[in-house]
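Handout, page 2. Input:
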Amino acid sequence: MKVVAISGVSGCGKTSVIKQLSKTLSCPYILFDDHTDENTYPNDMNLWFQNGADLSNIETPRLINKLRTIKTECAEEYLFIEEPFGRCRESISMLIDYVVLLDMPMEVCLSRVIMRNIQHPSCDSLNSIPNYLSMYDDHFREIYIGTTNQVRKSSDLIIHDVDSIESTAKSISNWLKSNAN
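Output:
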């Protein structure tokens, strides 16, 4: 089983692409946000970024345990994992075979995050949009750019095209079939 990490910033399409790849190739997947908790991210993201943004400070032991379990129990050719930080986190880097970076323009990602909150409102999502935009302007944008620059260095495939989910998944699938075996 080859573990394929789909990486990129919030709103780049990781979850949608992973679900499409999983469906098309009949392979399991793991989503990052399903395995986070209150200890995953540093308490002060702005201070963390100012101190060098060490991605190993982002902790997801439940995700790593799930990944190890699926690797030992499943026989499918691929396991797709949503890992925003590619191979940049020591705790997971050795478990990943390939990193695909969805390197979308920041304004596209921002628009998608806003639309996601509007289209799938939770009790506080409409109130959270102004808060998110304030943090985006203050430090999130720079964090996204900085972490993407780190991930880019160890990515096996980088997708820059803003395309449909189906087309993006097909590009990744074709790349896996022709280059990753």
